[in-house]
Amino acid sequence: MTQRWVAGEYGRVGAFVHQLAGGVVEWLAPQQGERILDLGCGDGQLTARLAAAGAVVTGVDASVEMIAAARLHGITVDHAYAELLPYSDASFDAVFSNAALHWVRNQDAMMTEVRRVLRPEGRFVAEMGGQGNIAAIRVALMAVLARHGYADAEDGVNYYATPEVYGRRLTHHGFKVERIELIPRPTPLGEGGMAAWLRTFRRGVLEVLPETLRETVVNEACALLEPALRDEDGNWVADYVRLRFIARAK
Ligand code: BEZ
Question: 166: Cβ below 6 Å to ligand 1?
């Protein structure tokens, strides 16, 4: 499946993604004049924040839709996949990423590229989904998909590692891991609740199904999730778990 993004919808339903990213930006601590690559910059909200801090920022994203939205911030944004970056060796002082790396299919190719475009001692600072991320959502969705004959549709959509596994992978690719943590972050969902989340963040999975089945799957998944993720006031909270790290190029 290929995840397709609709920038306006992502901006509305996924606003929490950049609103809750203060912690990883603090870990990055962008400095005036630093060359920073924002890998998987999405609609550019955070890229613009790094630029406002005085960094010389380049955004890169695999979604043409998202790039168009990011460019509205007046920042430099390129279209490329994380596994094949269009930059020369040692072009950046830091590579930053928020809520994007769990979408990358080939983690080893991505790390090779990040290491290549970083200068020696440059830092790779990122936050992504970690082990256990959206576990309840995934189990509910898989159960409903299996009931309708699409048991595999959710397989391999995202990659969620433990700090131990991801730390080893980073080390293998020539990074010194300075800090890596798993951070549980129950995340209140805004208007539209879980149904809107599924339609936005599982668009690629839903698009594998016949159109007539998509809303049935959304509604059945919401019904299964309601006792676990919806409170008595009707508010939905997604069971996010983040993996956050600082690693330095050796
Ligand atoms: C996440 O940021 O963890 C995430 C985003 C979209 C879908 C699944 C997980």
Answer: no
